[in-house]
Design goal:
The protein is an alpha+beta fold and 252 residues long. The protein has a five-stranded antiparallel sheet. Helix 1 runs antiparallel to helix 2. The chain starts with 9 loop residues before the first helix and ends with a strand. The relative contact order is 0.13.
């Protein structure tokens, strides 16, 4: 909030003071001259001089009264703006107020949605979970569908990924095909056909200016990429090996 904004008036008061001072000084000199004229007229019995002196002294006092009124008027109107009430509404001095709403703070933490069976990048005894045993970590159709809708609402399905990597549920090395960031969008059809992925976990940082800082706000903030982890068929051998493929997608 700003204080009242008004133009400085000290210069106007200074000019008025100089004007009045100069006028008064000249008037005093003139008054002295007129008094001398009056006295000389009386001394030498010159009625014309006496008359001029009397008229001049009277004019001096009248002028002093007028100058005092002018100076007082300038001081009164410029210092307190008391004549503002006589002005039309558009010409009156305005009070400027700037009210700013406090901006929403940016969310500082990421949020996520994941399947109940998601391993959260921990071994959790999964070293022996190869073959059909790995299916116990498969998300449900409802869980995967919810995460897919969230990704579409964020808009990340239309953006390019910048990183991709894979892990088997046994947390061994890359025994399957080499992961590619193009599997996220450009080569998505081929990737789906080969690995039959299901959303297992999604993570993003909400934009605090557009909603709450929880996983119901699908407006992703720039600066923290969206992360997607798919549960997939890691190796289509016998028995099959299941694993995860993770993508990071920069927010646009």
């Amino acid at each position: 909030m700003l204080k009242d904004i008004a133009a400085p008036l000290t210069q106007l008061n200074t000019i008025a003071a100089w004007f009045l001072g100069s006028a008064i000084a000249l008037a005093v000199v003139g008054c002295v001259c007129l008094l001398l004229t009056w006295l000389a007229g009386k001394t030498f019995s010159m009625q014309e001089w006496v008359k001029k002196g009397q008229i001049g002294v009277a004019m001096f006092f009248l002028g002093a009264v007028l100058l005092g009124s002018i100076g007082g008027g300038i001081e009164w109107s410029s210092s307190d703006s008391k004549t503002e009430g006589l002005l039309p509404e558009a010409a009156k001095q305005k009070t400027i107020r700037v009210d700013r709403k406090a901006p929403h703070s940016k969310c500082t933490s990421t949020v996520s949605i994941s399947a109940k069976t998601h391993l959260k990048a921990k071994k959790d005894g999964s070293n022996d979970d190869t073959g059909e045993n790995g299916l116990k970590y498969q998300p449900t159709e409802a869980e995967a569908g919810k995460m897919g809708r969230g990704i579409r609402e964020i808009g990340a399905d239309k953006w390019d990924a910048d990183k991709a990597w894979t892990k088997s549920l046994a947390w061994k090395g890359n025994l399957g095909d080499m992961p590619s960031k193009d599997d996220w969008k450009k080569n998505r059809i081929e990737y789906n056909a080969k690995h039959m992925p299901m959303y297992s976990r999604i993570q993003w940082q909400p934009d605090g200016k557009k909603g709450n800082c929880d996983n119901t706000n699908f407006h992703a903030a720039k600066g923290a990429p969206v992360e997607v982890i798919f549960f997939e068929t890691f190796l289509d051998n016998s028995p099959k090996t299941y694993g995860y493929r993770k993508f990071t997608i920069p927010v646009k």
